[in-house]
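Why predict the complex rather than its parts? Because the way molecules touch one another can change local conformation, and only a joint prediction can capture that. The input here totals 625 residues.
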Amino acid sequence: MVVYGDGSSTAAERAFRYLEVRDTNLLPTLLVGDHALSARMGTYHLSCKRECKTVDDRWGFIRATLRLRSHPYHVYIARRNGTVIFSDDIADTSDIQQLTEKYLDGVVHYADDETHATQSLIGGEVSSFPAIRVSDGRLVTIPQDLPDGHNFLLFTARCPDCSLDGLVHVSNILKASRLTSKTSGVIPQTVLFSSRFSSRELKQLVLASGSPADVYQATGSIPALEDLANLTLSAPADICLVRTGASGTIIGITSFRLSGGSLQVVQGESYGLQ
Amino acid sequence: MDCNNVLSLAGLACTMLFLSSPPSTAQTSALELDKNVDLGRSVVQQIYVAADHKIYALQPSQHRIAIFSPEGSVISQIGMIGQEPGSFYYPLDFSVSGKEILVLEADDKRVQALTFAGRSLAQFSLPHQSNSITASPNGNICVADPFDSGLVSIYDIHGTRLRSFGEKLDFSEIYGSRHKSLDHEYKYGINRVLITTDASGNIYAAFIGVPLIREYASSGALLHEWKYPEQLYSQITRHIGDTLSISNSERFAEDGIPIPRIATGIVFDEERQLLLVTADWDGPHLLSLDVQTGHYEDQTLNDPHMHLSHVAITQGTHELVALMNKSGKETMRLYLKKYTSTSHQPERNTR
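Output of the joint prediction:
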């Protein structure tokens, strides 16, 4: 993907900030711009440890070659053989997200589908899956072996790199969970982490946090719920509060997003995590 | 396309009105809504409800036709972002013809024919930015194009332009001869129409910025012209003519002129031989026009903050489907109801 922007373009920067959370190894990414953009951004360091150089097109040769109109930015996607498959100057951040997902993953995740995905799981059952209790390494089956009425907080993430970053926030949440549970008692005592977290770092974190919660980590993918999370949750440390009835039927899912160190309800009813 | 701008124009003096017949009267009633389906937060630009009750919703910013279950869950989709065949980039309208779907992309000026599985069958480019498309029963494709010689242009599936028809209006003909100086500026914008067809191939055109509906034969001959019900017509023309301002307007990139966004949706109900047009003026209106008798019914929703953006008829059960959203809220909500109509005769202009 090539993003062409001039010195005043914030769209080009927004595009790259979106790419920051993606593994861009699959596709060469280039930021082409005029001298002002080049001077301002220089070599752009993506968080996934790749560098992306800004090409200085101060004389406009590349712009002319690409036949781009005079516009603050232009998104331009070409195959390795040079075939242009997309070119436009009105693509906004959401478009760039969709384009990136389409050409990297072949699947676009639509935020609007999240609501429906959450709703469609209500009334279904939590399928059994294995997990490890972090504190002692004991293998359990969830939800059968769960205490606390089968309610649990699910910490999940879309990509391993993002999950590792999210562990910092998870620590704060666990501490907040301990404080809240002392006063209101509404926080489930069971916390479940996606298998995508580093087991070693998770154990260190749980021990350091001194959380009163019973912390588990799935050994593999979590049926339905993690599919939901993959659809629903895009931030590094998003959280689902899953409430189940006595028979294991899901009666409520509340999605949370970390914002400034606190949790905000993304979808579903509030349940003591404000 | 840019919506919800404030139209503000400078006016002048001058000549005559061309519509000699007075506006029609109509029975008014409250639009009562039955069950509704939440279609989420993305703006839906056009809808189609299949006989199996699946809801096909065009979502321009998602660059797809999302297919919802009758309960409102996304179950699949047609297309995704892109410019290759089978992909869409800011699609603006679509129309279903038998086993094919026609999709109109305004900015890319492209028409695509696809299967319901999303496979591209054909595509061609339009010379201008269109805002409305409908499939003709004979296989041809009708697009609204005021930049052509008429209002509506007809293409075959290969993109060959067959003809253009529809006499154009001047701004001053509707909104007052004193605004003659605005005719040139508005010569394209005021002639933007929403179009649909019936099973006989007749083409119905509702002007977006004028309270007027026309019926054309497939040959392009004008069959009928109807003004909106009298009270509504008078309110609209008097207000815009006097103030040259309106809170709800629409702007297309081709000419960049904001036009009043009065008509918002159009569909022909074959079962009842009714032309249904949704309009925004002090709240949502559902205008039901019996094209055989000329009877008109104006159903209104007693909520000026509700926006009635499109209307459709469920295939098979012939339920009325109204797509709405609340001003300031993005959730699109689809209402379905068993439709009944009681109406009486309007004035009918045959030219």
